[in-house]
Amino acid sequence: MRLEKESEQLVQWKTKVDDLMLYMAHMEDKIKLEQEARQKLAEAYDKSLNCGFNVLTSQTQTLQTNPLIHEVVLTKFDSHR
């Protein structure tokens, strides 16, 4: 009778341990997916930031070469003196 009870308990605990191990594996997979998604998001953010910076730099350079802009800026600068 005792061996039978121990065997039942062993089967119950083994089932619970197996279920928990399966749950842990599932959680590990979710964590890996989240880490990959965070990495992709960080890369997309960096790309976006760099792209915005490059556009700003390009537009600034374009404006710097425009003689009309220089005239407006110099006129405003002179009027503040």
Write the layout of secondary structure elements.
Layout (H helix, E strand, L loop, with lengths): L1 H64 L1 H13 L2
Short description:
It contains two helices and no strands. The chain is mainly α.
Uncertain segments are none
Question: How large is the radius of gyration?
Answer: 33 Å
Please give the largest β-sheet. Answer: none
The amount of helix comes to over 70%
* Number of separate domains: 1
Inertia-based shape = rod-shaped
What share of residues are in beta strands? under 5%
User: Structural class from helices and strands?
Assistant: mainly alpha
**Euclidean distance between termini CA atoms:** 104 Å
| Total helical segments | 2
Count of DSSP strands: 0
| H-E order | HH
The average pLDDT is 88
